[in-house]
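Following up on my earlier thread - several people asked me to post the actual chain instead of describing it. Fair enough. Here it is, all 89 residues.
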Amino acid sequence: RSALLPEYLWLPLVLSSAVCMIAHITAVKMPTLHRHAEEKFFVSAEGRKEPVPSIHDPPTKELSVVVPSYNEEDRSCCYCDNAEVTFCW
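Reply from S.P.:
Thanks for posting it. Predicted structure:
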């Protein structure tokens, strides 16, 4: 045993490593998910019918961050000094 790790941490470390290895070895491929016809499309804010994104689609560069706060109209300036922000209130 090593002096780098306290004695009481060896057993949890070994057990958690074993559990992780077993989970990795026995894991199966992600199941194929099937959607009903009405679940394959949604109506966008512009009113267009668009396909629902899949987890297998390439990622987009869009990101939404919601910062809830009391009096957010007055306090949000300090959060957004260097960001391109669209407010919808």
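DSSP finds two helices and two strands in the chain. That should answer part of your original question.
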